[in-house]
């Protein structure tokens, strides 16, 4: 392993460690025991799911309680606008325009974070513990201001950490932050399961059944994520002679899941927002709506299935541009056997990508909902969904691929340096 790769891995681990440290920095003026008591009693609903994605930062009401979700929400809004307005879509494709595009996302993240931070701060005013203690220990107006500034700072730090990991480390920084948050909650989840078994609330056969579901889910994810359709490509004799000392790829790889983990993250962010806002309401109508959209409800998972399918097609249409591929192929002197260059090639690739995206979308939707249905049928008293497993496995595979690509790049640079 090269020194450059080791440095990138260490930088990535260092930033993840910084992220975990921030999860233990509470917002000033909060009674943490009261907040933790509240989240312990809501571990099986939307609040528990949001807390898991934050790496248990919310139950400590740390400065990163809102996590990276405001940034993801801002990204969703911008992706939808870029797909709707051609001018914004063109800006995203240009190098200088991409910087402006990312800047707009950052400003949008600030606005969303402030709105959510003020909402959370005001909601804590009515929260009391079993002993009658309030969740806020200082003046309400002061707390709202301090809390909003603290959470905004935390979210901006997370966004900066994600960008630094992407630029200087290994892998996608935002995905790795979510990955680290989920993984950090695994030890407490295992401990909680052991307690349930010891207390007689769960039998050993149920634990084995959960392990089978988890292993089956992981196996299915790995199998599909590594699957791809390789479209054969031929090059003219002139191109092959010019590149006889270089490796020329003779196929176009098209993944079964072109959209990656983004659809599941987008769908979760959208569906958890109303469920989180409505949680804890004393109004009977709002309580009924909260139960209706709770992660433990069938309604939530039906919408999850539909949203994941929608975002899978939407994001695949953005990430896979058959027209650009066909034009680049034509410039390089390559062609798909039996298909005319240009528009025919683009149409051919679009047809293949469309079929793969259909099955890929169904796979993502099934992984996001079926494990919950199986665990629900076992009578398990806590929430377990495939979204967390999907994110962990996909991010792990993506990071391993980037490490492998970096190793190949280092080997190529070494061979070039010695003149081979």
From TrEMBL:
Cell membrane among keywords: yes
Keyword field contains Transmembrane helix: yes
PROSITE patterns in UniProt: SECY_1, SECY_2
Predominant location: membrane
GO cellular component: plasma membrane
Subcellular location: Cell membrane; Membrane
GO terms (BP aspect): intracellular protein transmembrane transport; protein targeting; protein transport by the Sec complex
Bilayer topology: Multi-pass membrane protein
Transmembrane segments: 9-27, 61-83, 104-122, 142-161, 173-190, 202-224, 256-278, 298-322, 356-374, 380-397
Pfam (any one): SecY
Entry keyword set: Cell membrane, Membrane, Protein transport, Translocation, Transmembrane, Transmembrane helix, Transport
Entries under InterPro entries matching the protein: SecY, SecY/SEC61-alpha, SecY_CS, SecY_dom_sf
Function: The central subunit of the protein translocation channel SecYEG. Consists of two halves formed by TMs 1-5 and 6-10. These two domains form a lateral gate at the front which open onto the bilayer between TMs 2 and 7, and are clamped together by SecE at the back. The channel is closed by both a pore ring composed of hydrophobic SecY resides and a short helix (helix 2A) on the extracellular side of the membrane which forms a plug. The plug probably moves laterally to allow the channel to open. The ring and the pore may move independently.
Record's subunit section: Component of the Sec protein translocase complex. Heterotrimer consisting of SecY, SecE and SecG subunits. The heterotrimers can form oligomers, although 1 heterotrimer is thought to be able to translocate proteins. Interacts with the ribosome. Interacts with SecDF, and other proteins may be involved. Interacts with SecA.
Entry's family note: Belongs to the SecY/SEC61-alpha family.
Protein name per Swiss-Prot or TrEMBL: Protein translocase subunit SecY
Organism: Candidatus Marinarcus aquaticus
């Amino acid at each position: 392993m090269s020194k450059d790769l080791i440095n990138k891995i260490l930088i990535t681990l260092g930033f993840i460690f910084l992220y975990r440290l921030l999860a233990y920095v509470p917002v000033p003026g909060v009674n943490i025991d009261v907040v933790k008591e509240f989240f312990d009693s809501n571990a099986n609903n939307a609040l528990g799911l949001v807390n898991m994605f934050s790496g248990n930062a919310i139950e400590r009401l740390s400065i990163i309680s809102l996590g990276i979700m405001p940034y993801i929400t801002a990204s969703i809004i911008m992706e939808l606008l870029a797909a709707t307005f051609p001018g914004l879509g063109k800006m995203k494709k240009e190098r200088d325009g991409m910087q402006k595009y990312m800047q707009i996302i950052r400003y949008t993240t600030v606005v969303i974070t402030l709105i959510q931070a003020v909402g959370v701060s005001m909601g804590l005013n009515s929260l009391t513990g079993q002993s009658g203690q309030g969740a806020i220990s200082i003046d309400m107006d002061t707390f709202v201001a301090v809390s909003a500034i603290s959470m905004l700072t935390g979210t901006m730090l997370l966004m900066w950490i994600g960008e630094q990991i992407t630029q200087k480390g290994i892998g996608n920084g935002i995905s790795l932050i979510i990955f680290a948050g989920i993984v950090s909650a695994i030890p407490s989840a295992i401990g909680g399961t052991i307690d349930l078994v010891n207390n007689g609330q769960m039998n050993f056969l149920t634990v084995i059944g959960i392990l089978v579901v988890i292993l089956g889910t992981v196996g299915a994810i790995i199998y599909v994520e590594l699957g791809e359709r390789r479209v054969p490509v031929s090059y003219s004799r002139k191109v092959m002679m010019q590149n006889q000392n270089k490796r020329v790829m003779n196929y176009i790889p098209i993944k079964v899941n072109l959209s990656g983990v983004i659809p599941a993250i987008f769908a979760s962010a959208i569906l958890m927002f109303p469920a989180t806002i409505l949680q804890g309401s004393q109004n009977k109508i709002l309580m009924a709506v909260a139960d209706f959209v709770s992660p433990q409800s069938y309604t939530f998972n039906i919408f999850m299935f539909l949203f994941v399918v929608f975002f899978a097609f939407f994001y695949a249409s953005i990430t896979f541009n058959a027209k650009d591929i066909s034009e680049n192929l034509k410039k390089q002197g390559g062609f798909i056997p039996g298909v005319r260059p240009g528009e025919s090639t683009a149409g051919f690739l679009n047809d293949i990508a469309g079929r793969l995206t259909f099955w890929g979308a169904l796979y993502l939707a099934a992984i996001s909902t079926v494990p919950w249905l199986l665990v629900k049928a076992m009578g398990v008293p806590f929430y377990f969904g495939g979204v967390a497993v999907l994110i962990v496995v996909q991010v792990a595979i993506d990071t391993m691929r980037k490490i492998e690509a970096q190793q190949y790049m280092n080997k190529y640079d070494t061979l070039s340096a010695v003149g081979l």
